[in-house]
Design goal:
Elements: E1 3-7, E2 11-14, H1 19-30, E3 35-38, H2 49-61, E4 70-72, E5 74-76, H3 83-91, E6 97-100, H4 120-129, E7 133-135, H5 149-164, E8 170-172, H6 178-186, E9 191-195, H7 197-201, H8 205-208, H9 225-236, E10 242-244, H10 253-256, H11 271-281, H12 288-299, E11 308-313, E12 323-326, E13 329-332, E14 342-344
Parallel strand pairs: 2-3, 3-4, 5-6, 6-7, 7-8, 8-9, 9-10
Antiparallel strand pairs: 1-11, 11-14, 12-13
Helix pairs in contact: 3-4, 6-9
Bound molecules: N-carbamoyl-L-aspartate and zinc ion.
Residues 15, 41, 106-107, 136, 218-219, 247, 249, 263-264 line the site of N-carbamoyl-L-aspartate.
Length: 345
C-alpha cells in the first residue's frame, strides 16, 4: 500500500466565522491541522487584541477534546489602527499577525485600507517589532479587470511596500497568478506566499463551463491555466517561500447560490487528500511535507509540529461528502473535478 507520512500540517489562512458556522467548521480544520492563522474578517471585524482573545476563546470552545490545535489570531488593519496598541498586542502574544485588506477587495472588507500610504507608519512599527503582515493582494479600482487585480496590486502596491520596508515579514496570501509567483520567487527572503488547494486544482473554466458554478467563485478569482500551472510549479518546488494557506471560507448555500453570490470556497474537509493527489499527479509526493508542514513554520519562525500524519493511497477513488450541516442549513464542501485516491487514517 502506498503511503505518505508527514509532519502534521498547518493551515496559514482560515476563516472560522462565528456562532453556528464556527461550531461546525472548526473540527473540520482541527482534525488534521496542528495550527492555523485565523482571519479577522468577521462582521464587525477583529480590530484589537482584546477582541482577538475573546474570539480565540470562542474558537477553543469548539475544538474537539481529542484534537490538538492552536489558533493563531490576527488583527484587521484599518487606516485608524493604533500602531502602539497593535505592536503591544503582538509583543504580549495576544495576536500573531495583522491582515491588510484593500477596502472592498473581498467578503467583509468594507472597513479595509483605501490608501496604503496612510498605513505606512503602522507597517513600519510592525517591521520594527517583527510582526508579520498578511496581505490580500488585489487592487479594487473599478477600471481594473477582475482577472488583473492581483498583478496590478503586485506592481503598484506590493513592490512599494517591499522596497520601503525590506525587513517587514510579509505573506502575499492566496496567490493566483504567474506574476505574483515570479515576484515572490525573486524577492528577498522576508516575502513569502500562500497558495490554496482550489487555485492549485482549478482554472477559471471551472467557473463557467457547463453553466455558472457559484461554488467555485472565490477571491482572488480563479485564473487561466498558465497561472494555475505556475502555482503548481511553486507548490511542488520545495522552495520555502511557498506554503499552504487553504483560505477555507464557508458560506451558507443560499448565500452562494444567489443573485449576488458570496466569494469563498469551503475546502477544509478534504484539503489534504486533494493536495496529496495533486502532488502525486505531478510525481512530487516527496515535496508535500515542505508545502503543508515545513515552509510556513520556517517563514513564521515557528517550530515544526511534533506529531505526524499518514496519507494512504486507496484502490478506489475517495467518495466526498457533499455538504456540511449547519443546523438546518448547509455549506457545500469543495470537490475538485478530478478523482482523488488519497485519504488520511
Ligand atoms: C473570503 C471570505 O469569504 O471571507 N472569501 C474568499 O473568496 N476568499 C475572504 C478572502 O479571504 O478574500
Ligand atoms: Zn481568506
Amino acid at each position: 500500500m502506498e503511503e505518505i507520512e508527514i509532519i502534521k500540517p498547518d493551515d496559514w489562512h482560515v476563516h472560522f466565522r462565528d456562532n453556528n458556522i464556527l461550531k461546525a467548521v472548526v473540527p473540520e480544520t482541527t482534525r488534521h491541522f496542528a495550527r492555523a492563522i485565523v482571519m479577522p474578517n468577521l462582521t464587525p471585524p477583529i480590530l484589537n487584541g482584546k477582541q482577538a482573545i475573546k474570539y480565540k476563546k470562542r474558537i477553543i470552545k469548539n475544538i474537539p477534546k481529542s484534537h490538538n490545535f492552536e489558533p493563531l489570531m490576527t488583527i484587521y488593519l484599518t487606516e485608524n489602527t493604533n500602531k502602539f496598541e497593535l505592536s503591544e498586542s503582538y509583543q504580549e502574544g495576544l495576536v500573531f499577525a495583522a491582515k491588510l485588506y484593500p477596502a472592498g477587495a473581498t467578503t467583509n472588507s468594507e472597513s479595509g485600507v483605501k490608501d496604503i500610504k496612510k498605513i505606512m507608519p503602522i507597517l513600519e512599527t510592525m517591521s520594527k517589532v517583527g510582526m508579520p503582515l498578511l496581505i490580500h493582494g488585489e487592487v479594487t479600482h473599478k477600471e481594473v479587470d477582475i482577472f488583473d487585480r492581483e498583478k496590478v496590486f503586485v506592481d503598484q502596491n506590493l513592490d512599494f511596500i517591499c522596497k520601503e520596508l525590506p525587513e517587514l515579514k510579509i505573506t502575499l496570501e492566496h496567490i493566483t497568478t504567474k506574476e505574483a509567483t515570479e515576484y515572490v520567487w525573486e524577492s528577498n527572503e522576508n516575502l513569502a506566499a500562500s497558495i490554496t488547494p482550489h487555485h492549485l486544482a482549478l482554472n477559471r473554466n471551472a467557473l463557467f463551463v457547463g453553466g455558472i458554478r457559484p461554488h467555485n467563485y472565490c477571491l482572488p478569482i480563479l485564473k487561466s491555466e498558465i497561472h494555475r500551472k505556475s502555482l503548481v510549479k511553486a507548490a511542488i518546488s520545495g522552495n520555502p517561500k511557498f506554503f499552504l494557506g487553504t483560505d477555507t471560507a464557508p458560506h451558507l448555500i443560499h448565500d452562494k447560490e444567489s443573485d449576488c453570490g458570496c466569494a469563498g470556497v469551503f475546502n477544509a474537509t478534504y484539503c489534504l487528500p486533494i493536495l496529496a493527489q495533486i502532488f502525486d499527479n505531478e510525481r512530487s509526493k516527496n515535496k508535500l511535507e515542505n508545502f503543508v508542514s515545513k515552509n510556513g513554520a520556517k517563514h513564521y519562525n515557528l517550530k515544526f509540529n511534533k506529531q505526524k500524519i499518514k496519507l494512504t493511497k486507496l484502490s478506489n477513488k475517495l467518495t466526498f461528502k457533499k455538504y456540511l450541516d449547519i443546523r438546518k442549513e448547509k455549506v457545500k464542501i469543495f470537490e475538485p473535478d478530478f478523482p482523488v485516491f488519497w485519504d488520511i487514517f
